[in-house]
Amino acid sequence: MTITLNVQGMTCGHCKMAVTKALTEIEGVSNVEVHLQEGIVDVNYDEAKVNAEKLKEAIEDQGYDVK
Ligand SMILES: [Cu+2]
Fold first, then answer.
1. Domain boundaries, the chain
2. Separation of 60 CA from ligand 1 center, angstroms?
3. How confident is the model at residue 61 (pLDDT cuts 50, 70, 90)?
């Protein structure tokens, strides 16, 4: 399963790393791609282990808004 999330507030490489790390640490997430310019994050995950709500929470915990 792949989801594309609109994430607001990511401005630099640090933001990119913080979001990537937070998502990658979640069990069931297999791949994360942050597109800084576009403000989007593509996440590949196993629906049996994690859901979109959890992914959003992990991003919000880092201080970014998910639309
Ligand atoms: Cu930053």
1. 2-66
2. 14
3. very high
Q: pLDDT value at position 60?
A: 98
Does the domain made of 2-66 have the CATH classification 2.40.50.100? Answer: no
The alpha carbon of 5 and the centre of ligand 1 are apart by a number of angstroms equal to 17
Q: 3 C-alpha vs ligand 1 centroid, how far in Å? A: 22
Give 18 Cα–ligand 1 centroid separation in angstroms.
8
In sequence order, what DSSP letters do the residues of 14-67 get, joined into one string?
HHHHHHHHHHHTSTTEEEEEEETTTTEEEEEE-TTT--HHHHHHHHHHTT-EE-
Please state the pTM of the whole predicted model.
Answer: 0.95
Dump pLDDT digits (tens) for 23-39.
999 999 999 999 999 99
